[in-house]
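Per reviewer request, we include the raw input and output of the structure prediction for the construct analysed in the revised manuscript.
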Amino acid sequence: MSLKENVNAIKEELSTQEQFLESVIKAEGFWKKYKNIIIAAVAVILIGLIAKGITGYIHTQNIITANKAYNLLLKNSSDTKALALLKSSSPELYSLYLFQNSAQKNDLAALQKSKSEIKDPILQELLTYQINSLDNKITVADTEIAKDFALLQEGYLLLKADKIKEAKAKFSHIEKNSPVRGVVELLNHYQGK
């Protein structure tokens, strides 16, 4: 029996080695068949990861550059080099700076010049509101974002002109949950001169 057991053990060992050799041969065949595709896939993944890293680094550097330029402009608004740097590194922040700078001056010509340079639609609308506010030509149709503020300002201008009923009609269009509602309630009590 022991000879038979030894023969069976040898057969099992040969069978195991045979299976291992067979799987190695299959893997080698798979590698030969798909080698180019596997190498290309690994290369594409590596290139993608490298490109993502480089893009992230460039984006971070642009943010740092834009922040430095913006800080320089806050200290000295006439720094043309910092303004050009801000415009090239972050057009959105450049638009915001133009809006902020022209709105602080309350200069109609500066606001209109900024409006031609700013491309952001929200800032365009706020500039339109600011320009019309300086001209006392506020209309609700001019601005969707600052609708309640426009209604408040229109009503206030009507109150100044002693048109109390028209002012109260404007105030009635302002929503109950509006941030300007408290001011509207105070102005509603105004009865004229």
